[in-house]
Structure formats: structure tokens, C-alpha cells
Design goal:
This protein is α+β, with helices and mostly antiparallel strands and 98 residues long. It has three helices and four strands. The strands form two sheets. The chain has a two-stranded parallel sheet with strand order 1-4. It has a two-stranded antiparallel sheet with strand order 2-3. Strand 2 and strand 3 form a beta hairpin. The chain is extended, with a radius of gyration of 17 Å. 10% of the residues are buried.
């Protein structure tokens, strides 16, 4: 269920980025439209998430192998955007398709 929602969310992001890119191009800002893109890595697994730090400096963070793998997928999906290519690259880890 979570895996399906993650992929559906990625596809919705894809659609919204395409719409935004078209809107930017219609406003004659093709330079910005050419560089507008998103890469998404989807994986599944156990992670630690929560607030780390103390009262003076803290942040909400996520750690784990799944996070690192998703980051690697995202980096691999990231390519130079051109007008002939898609503006969103989505890579899904093998464990998500199950």
C-alpha cells in the first residue's frame, strides 16, 4: 500500500512539473523551463526518523540504508534536462515493486 502511494505521488509530481514547465514556457521564459526538472528515487525499508540534537540546535532527519539507496537512485536518475527529454526522472528500487 505504501509503495503504491509513493509511486502515485511521484507520478503526480511528474504531472505537476510538466504543467509548471508548460506555464513557464508560455510566459516566454524558456531558459528557466529548460533547467526545471526533478529526480525521484523510491525505495522501501527500515529507517530512523525524528528530531536529533539538543535544545540549542536540532533538526528533523531520516537515516538508514533505505534513505541512502533512495538518494543513490535519485542521483542516478538526475540527468541534464533538455527540451526533448522528460522533466522528471523516477527510479524505483526492486523491493518497492513487490
Amino acid at each position: 500500500e505504501d509503495n503504491v502511494r509513493a509511486v502515485v505521488c511521484a507520478l503526480e509530481i511528474h504531472e505537476r512539473i510538466q504543467n509548471l514547465r508548460a506555464e513557464i514556457q508560455s510566459n516566454n521564459d524558456s531558459g528557466l523551463a529548460k533547467i526545471l526538472g526533478v529526480s525521484i528515487g523510491i525505495t522501501s525499508g527500515k529507517v530512523f526518523c525524528g528530531i536529533v540534537g539538543d535544545q540549542y540546535r536540532c533538526e528533523y532527519t531520516i537515516h538508514g540504508e533505505s534513505v541512502n539507496f533512495a538518494n543513490n537512485l535519485m542521483a542516478h536518475a538526475s540527468t541534464r534536462i533538455s527540451e526533448k527529454h522528460d522533466v522528471v526522472k523516477i527510479l524505483v528500487g526492486a523491493e518497492v515493486k513487490d
